[in-house]
Amino acid sequence: MKNHYLKFYHFIDNLNIKNIENLHKNIGLIYRNYNKKPSEHEICKFKNYCKKNNKKFLISNYHDLVNKHKLDGYYIPSFNKKKNYLINKNRKDFILIGSAHNIKEIRIKEKQGVSQIILSPIFKSTNSNKPLGLYRYNLLSTQTKLPTLALGGINKKNIKFLKIIKTKGFASISYFKDKN
User: Fold this and answer.
1) How many C-beta neighbours within 10 Å does residue 38 have?
2) How many angstroms separate the Cα of 125 from the Cα of each of 2, 89, 93, 158, 180?
3) Are the CB atoms for 134 and 165 separated by under 8 Å?
4) Alpha-carbon separation of residue 9 from 6, 12, 27, 40, 43 (angstroms)
5) CA atoms of 119 and 108, how far apart (whole Å)
6) Distance CA 67, CA 135 (A)
7) pLDDT tens-place string over residues 119-178
C-alpha cells in the first residue's frame, strides 16, 4: 500500500452534494454516520461526483461498501478495535485512516495497517471536555512513524497553532462547512 495522504479531511454525515460543492478539491471527504447506512444509489451518485471533481471519498463503518464501490479509502474510528478487514488495501492510492486518543489506540491503529492517524481532540470542542492540547498532541505524534492529523475544536482563532505542532494537516467536522 502506498503511503499516500491528503492534508485535509472533512467529516460529513450525509451524502448531499450541495453541502460540498464549494470545497477545494484537496479536502478529502469522510462519510461518518453510524446511524444510517447510505443506499447504493447515494454511494454511486456521490462517488461519481467526487471522481468527476477530483475529490477523495472515504467511508467509515461500512467496509462492504468500500470494496463494492471501489471507494478511495476507509476510516477506522478509535472505538473500532477489529484487526482484520476484508478490504483490498493494495489498490493504488488507497487511503486507510484511523483515529486515536492515546498511545494504546495508536498501537491498535498501527496493527490495523492504517497509513495515517487522526489524533483527537486537539482543542476543546462541544464533543469533548478533555482536549489533548498542543504539548500532548506533539508527544503522541512522536510515538508513531505514521503521519498524524489533528482533529477537534479547530476554528479560525486557533488554526494558527497547528503550524507549531507535528501534524501533516487536520480533519474537521465543522471548520469547512462555512468555507468556500
Assistant:
1) 18
2) 33, 33, 32, 12, 22
3) yes
4) 7, 10, 5, 23, 18
5) 13
6) 38
7) 999 998 877 778 999 999 999 999 999 999 999 999 999 999 998 898 999 999 888 875
Stated pTM of the model: 0.90
C-alpha cell belonging to residue 128: 469533548
What confidence score (pLDDT) does residue 4 get?
Answer: 47
Q: Measured between alpha carbons, how far is 32 from 118 in angstroms, rounded to an integer?
A: 14
Nearest residue to 150 via CA among 121, 176, 174: 121
Note whether 66 and 47 are within 8 A (CB). Answer: no
Range 53-92 burial, b when 16+ CB lie within 10 A, else e:
eebbbbbbbbbebbeebebbbbbbbbebeeeebebebebe
